[in-house]
Design a protein that fits this description.
By secondary structure, this protein is an alpha+beta fold. It contains 10 helices and 4 strands.
């Protein structure tokens, strides 16, 4: 199991990173051809930034976290200003296997930044930059969720740092996407949920779900079922206090609903799917499909 590593607070570090193994894909078909030419090596520049900067302090002794940034440019202006949508994913290994599961799948529709061809990217948590701070934010979120899946509340330090970045962004001239907004997904809303005491039980169950559910399912499915069901039962019992439309709940079920359904497809008590429909209405069709097949 992972032990928490304190994240760097302020000082940039120029040491080869050990934490993330990111793949970056770029789609700029929506842009005029002259803008596309300026972005021809953008994917490799972003990939190098994510993979060669340190986001933790101390020695990284674990397998690199596989993640991806799929960037879809939506508009451009003044030769250097760009807007994009980004799908961010990360994976987690299942203990004692070679298999991996999806940890995160985030669709962020609000990334605006300035970029000039050939510019250097500098890593510095203390100063907000609309391009690099976006990448830093998601590196920390990826690390935070990964550590939460190994140790109860293990991602706190990473989420605190990500919250600092979101606050800087909300007070910057590129505040769109960083301020608290009513949307299916919002960066500031996600960090508010993660730091809210009412989600502490869920975050502890999230760890238990992975360590004593997913990680043991192959050799002890009965015990794993109990742990997975416990997470669902706790959310169901607290459904009056936890809004299913919250950013954290939407993110969790968008990332994990297929996985949960697969693990519970042979579970005998079908009431669990009625509970899932109540706490995850966005994926009712998936749960009804399983019920209809019984």
């Amino acid at each position: 199991m992972k032990k928490i590593i304190l994240a760097i607070l302020l000082l940039p570090i120029f040491i080869t990173a050990q934490e993330l193994e990111a793949t970056v894909n770029v789609n700029y078909e929506s842009l005029p051809s002259d803008y596309r030419d300026k972005l021809h090596n953008f994917a490799s520049i972003i990939e190098e930034y994510v993979n060669t900067n340190r986001f933790t302090d101390g020695s990284w002794e674990y397998e690199k976290i596989k993640c991806s940034f799929n960037i879809f440019f939506t508009s451009s202006s003044n030769q250097t200003n760009y807007s994009a949508q980004v799908v961010i994913t990360s994976q987690r290994p299942i203990e004692n296997t070679k298999n991996k599961i999806l940890m995160l799948k985030i669709m962020d529709n609000s990334w605006s930044f300035n970029y000039e061809q050939g510019q250097s990217l500098f890593f510095d948590f203390s100063e907000f930059d609309p391009l690099t701070s976006f990448l830093d934010f998601y590196a920390l979120v990826i690390l935070g969720f990964d550590f939460d899946s190994w140790e109860p509340l293990g991602g706190n330090d990473f989420f605190n740092l990500a919250d600092n970045i979101s606050s800087q962004g909300a007070n910057s001239s590129y505040s769109s996407g960083w301020q608290l907004e009513r949307a299916q997904y919002n960066k500031r809303g996600l960090l508010m949920d993660l730091r809210n005491a009412k989600f502490q039980q869920f975050r502890e169950d999230f760890c238990n779900y992975h360590v004593n559910g997913v990680d043991i399912f192959n050799h002890n499915p009965a015990a794993a079922h109990k742990v997975i069901v416990k997470l669902i039962d706790n959310l169901y019992e607290n459904r009056d206090n936890i809004d299913s439309r919250s950013v954290l709940m939407r993110l969790f079920f968008n990332s994990k609903s297929n996985e949960i359904a697969d693990y519970l497809v042979d579970y005998e008590d079908l009431e669990i799917f009625d509970k899932l429909k109540a706490i995850d209405p966005a994926h009712i069709a998936k749960y009804n499909e399983i019920l209809d097949s019984k």
